[in-house]
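User: I'm curious whether this sequence folds into something compact or stays loose and floppy. Could you predict its structure so I can see for myself?
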Amino acid sequence: MAAIRHQINIAVPVRTVWNALTTESGLVSWWADKARVDARPGGRIVLQRAGAEGETEERGIFHELRPTRRIEIAWDTNSPGPSRGTRVAFQVARDGDETRVALVHSGGGALDEDESRAALESEWKDRLNKLRAALEA
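Assistant: Here's the prediction. I'll summarize afterward.
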């Protein structure tokens, strides 16, 4: 199974990173233009972003949520966004004076197609750098 993997360190406490990953205001600061979040196992997440091809919407479910440690989102197979049918997992851990965020985006046909995978790789690099910039500002 194809997967995208990235890891970054951010010079803020774990709780600050956790809030950026699980709250509407946190997600809007780095990932989406609009967000609706029910941050609990089985809760829904909807992210809306404007792009070159118009507005896209990703809809998913929090498949796993272990406070301040791990989040896994299963994107709906019928979601109109490019991540449909995939899963994205975030591991959050203290790393000295920083917080390490490890991302794994896996599953779904989008990651098997070279062009789609390259676009998602690039987007994740950009989004994670935006997360770091938003939190370290």
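Summary: The first helix runs from residue 14 to 22. The radius of gyration is 14 Å.
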